[in-house]
Every structure is written in C-alpha cells, then in structure tokens.
Design a protein that fits this description.
By secondary structure, this protein is mostly helical. Helix content is 71%, strand content 0%.
C-alpha cells in the first residue's frame, strides 16, 4: 500500500505536467487531485506519503543557494492545497466578532 500511495502522487505530477504541456486534458489534474483528496482522508498510507513527500520538498527548497522564489512558490502552493483540501487555511474569526 505504501507503493500505491507514492504511485498516486507520481501520477498527479505526471497528469499535471501533461496538462501543462498539452498532452492530456486540462481538467485531468483537477479531477485527479479531487480523487487524491478523497484518498488522503480515507487512507493512512496516502496521508503518510503526502507528509513524507512534503518534507522532502521542504528540505529541497530550503537548501542553501536555492532561489527565494522557489520557497515562495512552495509556500503558496501548500496554502492553496490546504485551503482546497480543508486541512488548514485562513484563520477562523473569533466567536463574538462582528463581520
């Protein structure tokens, strides 16, 4: 199951690159990301694969000599995924505050 979880992440990368290079439909990464979102909530293996992969990417973009824009893109991407996935995002307003 660990291999399957990592393979699912690799498929997302492949589908996203395929869409950017016009090799497959532009809707494919969105649909596959939704599938992967469901797998994240249903499978401990997928959650662990995402955490491990994110840690490796974090280490890579934080290395000495990496362009600062790479770190900014990674942080922005994480924030977007967290908000879309419902696993973080913008802080909630405190109870009793007026809108």
């Amino acid at each position: 199951m660990h291999i399957v979880a990592y393979t699912e992440l690799l498929i997302l990368v492949r589908v996203t690159l395929g869409a950017l290079l016009f090799r497959n439909a532009l809707l494919s990464p969105i649909l596959y990301a939704h599938f992967l979102r469901q797998r994240y909530f249903q499978s401990a293996f997928t959650r662990q694969a995402v955490v491990t992969s994110a840690a490796h990417i974090e280490t890579f973009v934080s290395r000495e000599g990496m362009p600062p824009v790479l770190r900014t893109v990674w942080e922005t991407g994480k924030d977007v995924v967290r908000r879309w996935g419902g696993i973080g995002g913008a802080p909630q307003a405190a109870a009793g505050e007026e809108h």
